[in-house]
Amino acid sequence: MSTTIAAAPPVPKVETPLQRFVSEFVASRIALFGLVVFLAIVAIAVLAPWIAPQNPYDLAQLDIMDGRMEPGTVGGAGFTYWLGTDDQGRDMLSGIMYGLRISLMVGAGSAIIACLVGASLGMLAAYAGGRTDSLIMRLVDLQLSFPAILAALMILAFLGKGILNVVFALVIVEWAYYARTVRGSALVERRREYIEAAQCLALPTRRIIFRHLLPNCLPPLIVVGTMQVARAIALEATLSFLGLGVPITEPSLGLLISNGYEYMLSGKYWISFYPGIALLVTIVSINLVGDQLRDVLNPRLKK
Amino acid sequence: MTAFLLRRLIQAAAVVLVMSLLVFLGVFAVGDPVEILISPEADQFERERAIKALGLDLPLWRQYLVFLGNALQGDLGRSFVFNEPALKLILERMPATLELAIGATLAALIIGLPLGLYAGLRPNSAMSKGIMATSILGFSLPTFWVGLMLIMVFAVQLGWLPSTGRGETVTILGMRWSFLTRDGIAHLIMPALNLALFKISLVIRLTRAGVRETMLMDYVKFARAKGLSPARVTFVHVFKNILIPVVTVVGLEFGGTIAFSVVTESVFAWPGMGKLIIDSINVLDRPVMVAYLMMIVLLFITINLLVDITYSLLDPRVRLESKS
């Protein structure tokens, strides 16, 4: 009697949630492309002091004789201005690299602070309920019924220019989105059995909120957060363009574009054009990533 | 219905009151009110007199009541720069902004509706995918930069359209309008399109989603089964039904358009309220800032109120809910 050992059934591959998330995310080529571009932009911004041909903040390195040179001209310092120079002889490529630092810093910084503030208030509203809830949600409604650009404009009008003031203004106009998102998902999660179980175990409220409730509210928060970073960067650029954002000594992309405005009418397009392209690529790449995150993290789209 | 209206009106009034307090505190508490409200060129004697005249020696809550009382009478202070009542300055520039915002809204509908309709009817064609990809750009592109690029291409390179300003205007009912002259229209095209950019994308997406949803409805299938021509089904049965939500959203967006015209007006040097407020902020003309802010608050609250009332008229559930 020959016993043939039946081939063991193939062990189903067990995917951890993270692996599943990664494989679903990379399923979209365009989102992957967006992520790669975004990481490249972050790398350029971080490494700017080492890879930029020139330090645009160091006035000693600038040669006013090189002002408003066309892209591709070789300047007095001996290197080529691939993207031209602005009115003060600043290399646009270096200016953009350093400008990206400011733009990303302001965008990400304000998004993180707004997320902390908004998520805490949203969680408080959902958990406390009653008067606290309606007070916080009234504030959210008031904030959302008012266009972000105007609210930020007025805050900066009263506070004046400055990176910290811009971050503050962006936090004020953005927290409401996070608060609404967290409150919405926390209200749903609160009624689930695992929260009830945790409450039956008499776990402290703080532990229930931070270890049980919050992790389950994270996916929508991440999606909103990604989109808000893009929005914050665009808003900061707009405010800086209007002359209300970052100070002239530390130009963000918006301020670089604004500097080129007056020269554009005489056909010197590159001072405004290239920083705008950098801004556009940054925002689009973040939005592509955010779009895919929304699809992957949305449980309603799961089979 | 009367009770509902009354409740809504009281709520709106409360919000106006809260915002006026915020504006008041913004101007009076953040900076030194003397520095803010009295022209820096004033000498010592003039300052003392102005402090008395403006009531700055009173306690803060009394000052707020005075500010409120003046505001109710339409007195929001005088501009330092123009030496004219701030409210009058803003009202003078309002037609230009309204013209721009209405132009942008119309442009969004005229461009967005057909494109959205096409993308909804043929969701898988290459053209539709192109339309949708472009609409993502519309959400992502920084508006002010697109404005600059429009100027660069159409005004500087091609020379087809004037780059800035409002052009020739005609006075009707005491207000200056530029949409009635050829020159004015030429000046209006680029700013209106620029301001419409975001809304075009919005209209495309709303229309497309609406069309795709409506095409699956029983009444559309029935209309097809009846043997009606595709054109009739599309334009009468589908299009008319999606028009309502699209127009509602675009109407709701109108306030946002007026707010965002601040940016477009700065790019195209369009002499409206938005340009005025930016100029005022840059020269610290605070009375104009306060007046503009109060006007905008009033505008937004009116729009929200109208929307609420319209909803309650259309949907009785809203009214009944507020009763219980």
TrEMBL record, chain A:
Keywords of this entry? Cell membrane, Membrane, Transmembrane, Transmembrane helix, Transport
User: Which InterPro entries does the record cross-reference, listed alphabetically?
Assistant: BP-dependent_transpt_permease, MetI-like, MetI-like_sf, OppC_N
Q: Where in the cell is it found?
A: Cell membrane
> What biological-process terms (Gene Ontology) are attached?
transmembrane transport
> Which segments constitute the ABC transmembrane type-1 domain?
100-290
Using the UniProt record, give the first listed, main subcellular location.
membrane
* Listed Pfam families: BPD_transp_1, OppC_N
SUPFAM superfamilies (UniProt xref) = MetI-like
Domain of life of the native organism: Bacteria
Transport: is it a keyword of this entry? yes
- Topology relative to the membrane: Multi-pass membrane protein
Could you tell me which CDD domains the record lists for this protein? TM_PBP2
> Is Transmembrane helix there in the keyword field?
yes
Q: Which is one Gene Ontology cellular component term of this protein? A: plasma membrane
Transmembrane parts of this sequence = 30-52, 102-128, 148-173, 269-290
Q: In which family does this protein belong, per the annotation? A: Belongs to the binding-protein-dependent transport system permease family.
Q: What is this protein called?
A: Peptide/nickel transport system permease protein
Instruction: Please give the organism.
Output: Belnapia rosea
Per the UniProt record, the lineage of the source organism begins with: Bacteria, Pseudomonadati, Pseudomonadota, Alphaproteobacteria, Acetobacterales
UniProtKB/TrEMBL annotation, chain B:
| Pfam families from the UniProt entry | BPD_transp_1, BPD_transp_1_N
Fetch the InterPro entries from UniProt.
BPD_transp_1_N (IPR045621), MetI-like (IPR000515), MetI-like_sf (IPR035906)
Q: Which PROSITE patterns match?
A: ABC_TM1
Q: Where in the cell is it found?
A: Cell membrane
Keyword Cell membrane on entry: yes
This protein's superkingdom? Bacteria
The segment(s) forming the ABC transmembrane type-1 domain are 94-307
Q: Which CDD domains match?
A: TM_PBP2
Q: What are the record's GO terms for cellular component? A: plasma membrane
Keywords for the protein's UniProt record, in alphabetical order: Cell membrane, Membrane, Transmembrane, Transmembrane helix, Transport
Supply the name of the protein. Answer: Peptide/nickel transport system permease protein
